[in-house]
Design goal:
heterotrimer, A alpha/beta, B alpha/beta, C mainly alpha, A: alpha/beta, Rossmann fold, 2 domains, four-stranded antiparallel sheet, C: mainly alpha, 9 helices, flat
């Protein structure tokens, strides 16, 4: 059974002319970490809203094709039921937290699902610890930094024990410290908890190191899908769809061009350092000897 | 104590602060004694993590906040004796969230709002509005409702509405937040043109990639103090300074620093520079 | 931020520990008592009692003073205005044209001011010692529908957010040369459009996301919703309730059954 299965999905928002999603088919395996990359207006937010049935239940429009999550067609069940399978985190930290304390925020989902009190307590502590917000139980979400708010939003989704987490540009308005904290939580989710994650991003830089797969989108269409090394290899292709290529891949590509080779392909600074020492700078030392 | 922008010839100072301190009502000391000169034609980035004081500084520069002690002089006049509307003729401020500014039914009306408030005669208002619309490339959108536009376009409208007041200095708070690479590039190119035409630009940001590509001078803030004021190359040669201000150097800068002991200069700022240096080191062997 | 909106201060006093439902009942009972009592001395005694409770709630002088500023102004106003509009009774202390100031009217003014003082300050006991979440929880427990309670909670939660939003919008428009307090009434109300429209638009955008967030967290999934924190009446809460009942019932009995003038 696939974690997510989009079968030839088209969606047009009410009162809009263009298809926000156009003939998109996508399969995500359980435990996979998939980053969807595209510029503003490419359709990645729409795709996120489809995963737990907010489209078509809360947002109206013309929907064709089918979306199923762990075998259930989300178009045919209420959002509150899909929510037990799919947790979702939005861009704006300020407008998705609505309780007067962090603890209530994280407890809200399981409370709605009538989870017994003792179990909620355990889940709240578990989720807060996972996102590095242990001990913030009684703080008001309003008093937290942007990065902390987003981590609380993740905890509030995790406390429903979903099988998949969907994040729509969660680092949208965060400063570097906030981003760092957020991405380290996402890395933990993948590496320690094997969570199925779908992450929508405008920028590949941070998700590069721990995404299993990148999906490129443009104008509502799915252009390419594959491992990071393959999809991000060509910076020109990314620029064409309005996405800033990761700097290290630009270094690799420029080295390939200038040295007339195609052997360079790196995803992280560490990898780039190793390869450059090995292949670019080392021959020089040998030459001297 | 603060490394200064050495070697830059003395130009006309538009803004200068002396021992500028600002304390918020709750007692938070956001600015702790800043001495800073902004000269005509500068392209300055004020950088720092959240809580470093950079936004407070920006608001002090256009008089939205008056110094608790010390002075901010705008064209030789202390802001404490000027109204915000008077300072707006010299120092424009585009807020981070365009939705905090936009309220008119057409882009053109929105852009007219500022110069009308400042009481310019109709003829002059029209000229300034046209120039602003052109500078932000909004000709196609002028009749549309600002709220119906996309974020990148709304941001350009809000910036045009500030440019239309024809200030000598333009302060922009995180102008690239939420924009994708294409929108970001278009906006930054417009700013570059404005700067080339003589407009002084002050960017408030924590995006060091934008700083590396566009700013000529960088002021690093941490805990309400300026910990560095130098040309932008100087900032990237000292990662400790960025760390102190909770900023993340761009990957290419991090890579250059890791390769420093192999002869790569530590002030590399762009992909092209790094590759150039790599091939030079290789060729030099 | 939000000092005006949320008066609650964390502390560990018997009033903080008291079940919020008991506190709500207490405040209602003490308010009723203020209506029953008609003697100035008894009202002043009640006012003293309320201040004693505020003191025991560890309300700091500055917070109390802040809270009392409005009440005190109102009380002074009553004391001044009452005798002017109430010419009944003798002796007449002073008269100026049609206005007669009589001694009983002066006392009635002071008595009314004391009653208003009681009615206003008694609520501070609740607000100082009860967090918003406990207050909402208590209301839901007392029979208010969960969605109403949630709506109230969300409103309270977003008050400081919108306060900050309006401040930012005002600043943004001032930076465009807008002078909010300049011009006549018409000009000034037009000025406020520039603040109002962005505020409403931002609020609507927030509300949109908020509704998506609520649904995504299984809001309304089941009727038998559970609660992480529950309110439990402890023995001390019952004692407090009994004492309060006595405080109200005794004077009421005296006044309405025994016909004692109090």
């Amino acid at each position: 059974m696939k974690a997510l299965e989009l079968n030839n999905v088209r969606f047009k928002y009410r009162d809009f002319q263009n298809w926000a999603l156009d003939s998109v088919s996508l399969e995500v395996e359980k435990g996979e970490f998939v980053t969807i990359l595209g510029c503003n207006g490419s359709g990645k937010s729409t795709l996120c809203l489809l995963t737990n049935g907010l489209i078509p239940h809360a947002i109206q429009g013309n929907l064709q094709g089918s979306v199923s999550v762990f075998g259930n067609n989300v178009g045919e069940q209420p959002v509150s039921q899909s929510a037990t399978k799919v947790g979702i985190v939005f861009q704006e930290p300020e407008s998705q937290l609505f309780c007067m304390s962090v603890e209530e925020e994280v407890a809200f989902g399981p409370e709605n699902l009538a989870v017994p009190r003792e179990e909620i307590k355990t889940r709240v502590e578990w989720a807060l610890e996972l996102v590095g917000m242990k001990g913030y139980n009684n703080r008001s979400p309003f008093s937290l930094s942007g990065g902390q708010k987003q981590r609380v939003a993740i905890a509030a989704a995790l406390s429903m024990r979903p099988e998949m987490l969907v994040l729509d540009e969660p680092a949208y308005a965060l400063d570097p410290v906030g981003r760092l904290g957020l991405y380290s939580v996402l890395r933990d989710l993948k590496e320690k908890h094997g969570m199925t994650v779908i992450l929508a991003e405008r920028d590949a830089e941070e998700a590069l190191a721990f995404s299993d797969r990148f999906v490129l989108m443009k104008d509502g269409k799915l252009l390419e899908s594959g491992p990071p090394r393959q999809v991000l290899r060509d910076p020109a292709k990314l620029r064409e769809i309005g996405v800033a290529p990761p700097q290290v891949t630009e270094v690799a590509s420029l080295l390939n061009t200038r040295m007339g080779t195609s052997k360079f392909s790196f995803l992280t600074v560490e990898e780039a350092e190793r390869a450059i020492l090995e292949e670019v700078l080392k021959p020089k030392k040998e030459g001297r000897r | 104590m603060i490394p200064s922008a050495h070697g830059i010839p003395r130009e006309e100072k538009i803004i200068s602060t002396r021992n500028l301190k600002f304390t918020y009502e709750g007692g938070v000391q956001a600015l702790q004694g800043l001495n800073l000169d902004i000269r005509s034609g500068d392209y300055v980035a004020i950088v720092g993590g959240n809580g470093s004081g950079k936004t407070t500084l920006a608001k002090a520069l256009n008089g939205l906040l008056k110094p608790t002690s010390g002075t901010v002089m705008v064209n030789g006049m202390p802001t404490s004796e000027l109204k915000v509307a008077e300072i707006a003729k010299v120092v424009g401020y585009a807020f981070q969230n365009p939705d905090h500014q936009l309220f008119c039914s057409s882009v053109e009306d929105e852009v007219r709002f500022g110069p009308l408030n400042l009481g310019y005669p109709e003829q002059e208002v029209r000229q300034k509005v046209e120039r602003a619309i052109e500078a932000m490339n909004l000709g196609q959108l002028r009749a549309l409702a600002p709220l119906s536009l996309r974020l990148g376009e709304r941001r350009r409208v809000s910036i045009a509405s500030v440019i239309a007041m024809d200030p000598q200095v333009l302060i922009l708070d995180e102008p690239t937040t939420g924009l994708d690479a294409g929108e970001s590039l278009e906006l930054m190119n417009s700013l570059k043109r404005l700067n080339a035409e003589g407009k002084t630009i002050i960017l408030i940001t924590h995006d060091m990639k934008v700083v590396a590509e566009h700013a000529r001078r960088v002021i690093v803030m941490a805990n309400g103090r300026m910990i560095l004021d130098s040309d932008s190359r100087g900032v990237f040669s000292d990662l400790a300074i960025l760390g102190e201000s909770n900023l993340e150097p761009p990957p290419v800068v991090r890579l250059a620093h890791r390769l420093a002991k192999h002869g790569i200069p530590h002030d590399v700022m762009s992909v092209e520079e790094l590759v150039f240096q790599l091939l030079r080191s290789r060729g030099g062997g | 931020m939000g000092g005006f909106i949320d008066l609650y201060t964390e502390a560990d006093t018997f009033l903080h520990r008291m079940d919020p439902r008991v506190k709500i009942v207490a405040v209602l009972l003490l308010s009723l008592l203020a209506f029953i009592l008609s003697h100035l001395y008894l009202l002043l005694a009640l006012l003293t009692f309320i201040f004693l409770l505020l003191f025991l709630a560890r309300a700091t002088i500055s917070r109390t003073a802040f809270a009392l500023k409005f009440v005190l102004r109102f009380m002074v106003l009553i004391i001044i205005l009452w005798p002017i509009f109430d010419p009944t009774g003798t002796p007449v202390l002073a008269s100026l044209g049609p206005i007669k100031i009589t001694e009983p009217a002066v006392w009635r003014g002071v008595t009314s001011a004391a009653r208003v003082g009681c009615l206003a300050t008694v609520w501070y006991i609740l607000m100082f010692t009860t967090s918003q979440r406990d207050l909402v929880r208590a209301l839901v427990k007392m029979g208010v529908r969960f969605d109403f309670g949630l709506t109230l909670a969300i409103s309270l939660r977003f008050l400081p957010t919108f306060g900050a939003l309006i401040d930012s919008i005002k600043d943004a428009q001032r930076a465009r040369g807008l002078e909010l307090s300049k011009g006549g009434l018409l000009k000034r109300s037009k000025n406020y459009v520039a603040v109002l429209v962005p505020t409403i638009v931002s609020a609507l955008r927030t509300a949109d996301t908020l509704s998506l967030a609520l649904q995504s967290r299984a809001y309304g999934a089941r009727a038998d919703r559970t609660y992480l924190r529950d309110l439990n009446m402890r023995p001390s809460d019952y004692v407090a309730l009994a004492v309060l009942a006595a405080i109200l019932v005794l004077p009421a009995f005296a006044k309405f059954v025994m016909q004692v003038d109090i």
